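Can anyone check this?
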Amino acid sequence: MKTIYRFVLAFALLLGVTGVATAQTSPLGAAEAGGGVRSVTLTTTGGFAGVHETVTVTDQTAYPKKDQLFALVTRADFRALKDRYLPANTCCDRFFYTLEVTYADGQYKKVETMDDANAPKVLFDVIQLLRSTR
């Protein structure tokens, strides 16, 4: 009888430990899949025609590249970007970009740049994804 009791107790403990491990790993999987992003907004201004466009992708938006976009803006190199990347010469018919990201944990990131700026590739990868929505 004691053997059965010990077996049941060991089995119950094993189930409890497995359940805790699963509960702890699920949020990490969601964050890696971009679950930590509420919205990404790109405002594009300037150019020869004086463009002013705003594109927003939220966690509720049906956008085919949303997972790719959210994965980019949750990367460490994106989160480490400076607030502004501008070329030495800011004159004449270039597009100016303001990129804003709101994360699910309440954090906010804003980065400004222009065409021909010396900026990390991840910034222009995000801009290109958002501009492809038009």
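Reply from J.R.: I decoded it. Residues 1-34 have pLDDT under 50 and may be disordered.
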